[in-house]
Model the fold of this input.
Amino acid sequence: MTVSISIKNLSKKFKVNHKVEKSLFGSLKNCFSKKNTVEIFYALKNLSLEIKEGEIIGVIGSNGSGKTTLLQLIAGILKPTRGRISVKGSVLPIIDLGSDINPELTGNENIFLSGAILGLDKEYIRKKYSFLVKFSGLEKFIDVKTKHYSSGMKMRLAFSILLLANPDIVLIDEVFGVGDISFQKKCLKKFQKFVKEKKTIILVSQNIDLINNFCHKALFLDKNNLIYFGDSYIATEKYLTNSEKNYNDFGKKEIEITSVSLLNSKNQETENFRQGDKMILKLGYNNKKDIKNPMFGLAIFSNNVFLIGPNTTKSNVLPKNLKKKGFVFFEIESIPFNIGRGHLTVAIHDFNGEILYHRKEKCKLFNIEKGIKHKNFSDMNYSWSFE
Amino acid sequence: MRVKHALSLIKEFAIVDLKLKYQGSVLGYFWSLLNPLLMLITLYLVFSLIVKFDIPHYQLYLLLGILIWNFLSEATNGSMHSIISKSGLMRKFIFPKESIIIGSCLASFVSFLLNLLVFFLFMIIFRVDISLKILILPFYLLQLFVFVLGVSFFLSSFYVRYRDIIHIWSFLLLMGFFITPITYPLEIVPFHLLKYYLLNPLARMVVDMRYVALYNYIPDLKNFLITLIISVFVFVFGYLIFRKRKSHFVEEI
Done:
């Protein structure tokens, strides 16, 4: 597959004038007053990634994390402040539907105006006209000025016009909530057709299921930085845990979990494992209040089903003199889990598990691919060690 | 491909502008003509009853001046308005932004031409001779269009950032109206000031166009060349500024 979109060290800077002075006089005034009202902020910082032809990429992140800016940069609507972005083929941005509809024109007139903006031939629009009107479901209102349309109708009209274009790359920004259920179904069908035609698609959405179901890969942006680019499930889970950070962290932290990482047999940090591989969980702790005899425990989930919950008390492995700061290793000799996605919850309790010191839920995600499955998880071999 | 895209967009934008102006009716056109006609009546009353100039066909003299000035004012203000009203489009699509300005000016130019037809109708009504010399009028019209387009490019590229330009411009237009021989003859300008007075290229254009359209007279070619050079210069200057600033429009609007 050839590269469709290549982004290197892309940064986009915006100047925000807090006191909006859109006038010559105001600008002059600002020149003389010492108060600086202009704030510079980066909508995207040092982003590098490559998207191949025919890939479907999801983009997730909270509002204002730079998702739409990224689409506008790819579409060429905005110019990058720094870095390079090269796009192969024609781009169709489906952003902010309906804002381009001129309220004083009829639906029919809007179709031809928008068609011209898309660079479509007038003859071609005429040929597709009846199909388009039928798709939008606006047959009765097509010769009515669009200011009399409801907002849903406007979006339906705008979306239908866009479908006339035949782009190589489609950028979709939160538009799968457009119109009523029947129109949404039509949109989804069209989306699937794009997929079948092997178009490169970039999909910005808050709909986690949509990203998980359709996207090969996903991009998680947070505070204008790229947090993760890869497996869409891991991206969406990271996004979910990130936005629920405060709800996934429990306890007073008398002894705190400082780091959690997953290592493979070569001691490299990774999220991808195969059945039969070795998996090591490395857990950093800080015993701030010198708790004697704590219990380290974890819960392993596979495809959202709880599998096993080992802890140091059960295994009777706790060393007599635990360091104040250190690491606990949990090692699985040969992964017996099913293929799919899994996650981990780690916790530190007192020896009997009665007092909770610190628990981090869903703090680590992993991916299990097909390998050699030796055993059932019930007779899984694991060991604890300390450092 | 890009040029074809731009041309079809210019056409579309111009048609939409005209459509919205006339709201698809013949009556709509008369409403838009009403403004210059009412102005004509007012100025005619003032300048033929109170201040008296010895100008043949004064009402037509006045009308042509008003129509030219009306075109300048409509095209420049219309361009500034359309660059803002197309901000939604610019945020979503890539298209040649020049076509917004050209389309808007073209729409104003078409209604100017329609108004000129009314002007010729008046000429027939007032029994003014129309000769073949009028065939050179299109050159003057074209030159005026190029000039107005240049001014529109210049104004709109800054209007995106500085919204009070429209107020400054409307003041300049008002001032220009009085330092251009629209209501009065060129002859009343004191001779020692004429040199400075003619620095205003519109003064030359208005005078020449009147000669051609109304008085069956072919003006000095030198005059035409001067205004042509100025018009082309204004156009190139305005366009270059527009081209330099257009990539910032999306962020500034």
